[in-house]
Amino acid sequence: MIEVKDLVCGYDSKFVLNRINLKIEKEGLCGIIGPNGSGKTTLLRAMTKILKLRSGEVLFDGKDISKFGFREFAKKVAFVSQSSEIGSNMTIEEFVLLGRIPYRRQFQFLESKHDWQIAEEAMILTDTIRFKDRLLGELSGGEKQLAVIARALAQEPKLLLLDEPTAHLDITHQIKVLDLIRRLNRQKGLTVIVVLHDLNLASEYCDKLVLLNNGLIYKIGSPQEVLTYQIIEDVYETVVVVEKNPISSKPYILVVSEEEKAKVLQ
Q1: Is the model's pLDDT at 150 over the cut of 80?
Q2: Any idea which fold 2-222 has?
Q3: How far from 17 is each of 34, 37, 56, 196, 211, CA to CA, in Å?
């Protein structure tokens, strides 16, 4: 689906992703994890044409993404950023319909019947149809996040990239958002790449993890391969205990406070 080859990019001399090689298969659900400042958002921005590459290439279905026009690319790839700017005086329905802009023909100023149908399907999938007439400014953080995902789905993408979609959400909305993302992946065959800070959520929901550290790929593999206590302690420089989730058998990370660590060392 998407392949990154020898990618080098960044922001002047402040931060650079160096020699990134990565392949995400069609219909996969891949999580990108790593400490703050490791390059997670930078990698997503490079994969969505937002950030210019210094060298290397990003291929979508074998084609360099730099060769895609805006509309063509937006029909294939949707990006949910960490801080999506949305107007507060727009209804949910109006906001979701913005996802249909790449499909508008020249001199088309109104949405077609098909556009309305696709937007409605996106709202049904995200459970935002029940408040489609409400203003965005009236929504909670979790509801807004679902609306942003609905807009992305209205683009009818093959690949969905999300940058920390559960940030600042309570546990109820975190699970609701990630359950939705996995359901879209499993039932709709949507390929998903998601940046997550919470290692336990990444372990539970992702099939494949890419661990970044200091602008480099440290480890790629299944949650069981990546989330070992040795790797986590080395990259995050903190003591943890890794157990097995009794229900899913996925790795579960337990933190060890300074006070508890001191007790053990006594």
Answers
A1: yes
A2: Rossmann fold (3.40.50)
A3: 13, 11, 11, 18, 13
